[in-house]
Each structure stands twice: as structure tokens, then as C-alpha cells.
Structure prediction request, 417 residues.
Amino acid sequence: MEDVSLIDIACGISTALDYISPTVTGHHRRVGLASAALGSRVGIKSSSLVDVLLAGLLHDIGAFSMDLALDGLSFDADLEQHAVVGYRLLKDHPFLERASRMVLYHHTCWKDLRVIRQEGDRETLLLANIVNLADRVDILRRVGTKGRERAEVEAAVAGFTSDLYARELIEAFRELTEGGVFWPLVEDMDRPVREMLSRDLLDVRISPDQLIDFSSFFTRIIDFRSRHTATHSAGVAETAVQLARLAGMDEREQKAMRLAGNLHDIGKLAVPTSLLDKQGALDEAEYSRVKDHATVSAEVLRAIPGLGEVADWAAQHHERLNGKGYPLGLTERELSLGSRIMQVADVHTAITEDRPYRKGMTRERTVAVLRSMADNGFLDVDVVNLVIENHDHLDAVRTMVQSRALSEFRRFTEENG
Prediction:
């Protein structure tokens, strides 16, 4: 596990959001790049450009957590609520605290921002207005049966008043479009974002320990979308770490396992909460949509340079040794110890944790299920035996971390109720 770029991580999260609806594919990427371009044009320093790029990439995270309707970007009709939810999701992490304030105000007009008197926050408010304009430009360009031509969007922006957007931003947009810079940068969907940014923006690196802390925080964005999965990632991560230790993995590998556990379900950002919350049996199409989360997790995590084995361990949590898993149907020869541990940790957590619609399995039932899956070639026998031999300890630790996560979830839902 290496240092990774903060921007690469944010781009990965942004990519996961895009899977939920064809309407929003590329929207967060384009808003992020447009925000960085506008900020650079008005002379914003590099450190602040990182913050506005992060805000652009993640600006609608609150809408996804609320499962607002996304066809046609119709969540745009509930501007204040999803902005507040996004702010509350992001504000408690030091890497995202400033970006969270831009998310909070990314639908607030410039006239109202001008009267907000928070000491030292003037630049942040301008950056929020940048994200607002970048978001509006992309919606004007994309939403509707055919969207609008570039010239139509440019004319619309030129007609915006200073009550809506700072005049310097309208001028910066005009200069970028007239200079032929803006549209090629924002609308090139083939090049990786990292190739379109200056080196100083990519030089903000996260150490392995910082990345684990970041990913622990980010499990709330993954899990809090559904009351049925509100504590799942926390339970999987802790169980996987305990099993890694019991299997003889060293400290570095245990840290990598925690990171994989925290991020293994990132693909569920692409699954509607109506399916995550469904109590009855899923039909074939619904089950296929839920299964897609493993593919999304793989694509997102493997696109982040520096994750290495973590991406495989996380992405393969639904593979099975007998080849009957998904998404690739890998077999025993192709699955590492780390992947096998993650598979057992995911199953063990899923069947022992309480859900709103049912209690977790008893020890006896859990052991029977795991043993049957091992006997039939689905799960690794040795890892399953570690669970059985240490069940009481593993269950106690899992319960403790999930209780803590549940308290966070309840506090979050009360704030946004």
C-alpha cells in the first residue's frame, strides 16, 4: 500500500456516483474540472483549487445519500436539503472540511453569499459560487431531450445577473470559452482526470495511515444510504482485520485489510436504496442490479493508483472458491488469502448483524451456515475454521464497532430528519 493522491480518491468516489443513472454520467467530473478551470482563471491559489476541485467532484453526494430522483437531475428541485446533507456527510473530515462548506453553499446565489459574514470565509464563499456556476453550466448543457449547444449555454451565462453569480466568474467563463479552453477541457471524457490537471494539484498525497482514516470516515457515505446497511462496512472491516491477524498477516497487511473492508462496498453507491431497503425477494433484474455493485467496486478501486492488492481484496468479496461467485467467477487458484478473508468476513458480518427487518443469526446457526459453505467449496475452510474457533471474540468486536456505527447513523438521520 502506497501513498495515494487525494484527487485520485475523490475521482474514484465521483465515478461511483456516476453509475447510478445515465443522466449524471460524467456530471461530477465535468463540474470538478470546470470549477478548477474557473478558479484558476480568477487567480485562486493551488491549495484552494484542490478544495474547489474536491467540492465539484462531490457536490451532489447528499442527493445520493437521500436517494433523490436523478433522472434529468431532478434533485435540482430540492436544492437546500441535499446541499445540507452533503455538508454534514463531509464536514467532519479534515481533508474535506473546507470543501464541505462549498457543498453547503453550492446552490446559494451570490447576493445571499455576500451577506454571510464568517471571518476568513470570503474566499470559500467565492469558491462555492464557482461550483454553483460550473454545476449550472453542465445542467444547461446536458439536461433535456437534446441539451443545449455550447453557444446557447454561453449566451445564457452572459445573461446571468450579479445577484446570481459574481461578475468576475461570468467574465472568467467568457474568457475561457472565447479562448477555446473551457469546452475541450471539461468535455473530454476519454482522458483520465489526473492527465488534465497540473502537477501541483496531484501532489496532495495521503499516507497509508491517513488513507485508512479517510476510508473509515467514508464508510458513512457508503453505508448511510440505507438503514439496512448502515453499519455493514464497519463490521466487515473489523472482522477482516481480526481474521488477518489470526491468519498470521503482518501489521502492514492488516492495515491494508482494514482499508479493503472499508471500501469493499463502494459500488453500492450505484445501487438505488429502493433495492437496498427491499425486504422481500428481489426479482431477476433487481438482483442483477444489486450484483453490479461488485463490478463497480472493482472498476473504481482499480482505477486509483497506489491501492494495489487492496483493490483486489475489496473487489473480490463476492467471488467464491468453486467459481460460483461474481462478478468474474474466479476460482480457488485465482483468489489470494486476502480475498478469501474478505469473503468470509463479508458473509459472517451479513448473517450475524442485526437488520431492521430481522435479527442476526445465533452462534449455532452461523457456524452451521459457514461450515456448509466451506464444505461445498464456496468459502475457504481454513478461514472459516478461524471464525468458528474464535467466534465469541469476533462477534463481540463486530458488535462493538457496529454499535458505534449505529449511533453515528442515528445521529446523522436525526440531524437530517
Summary: The longest strand covers residues 4-5. The longest helix spans residues 391-415.
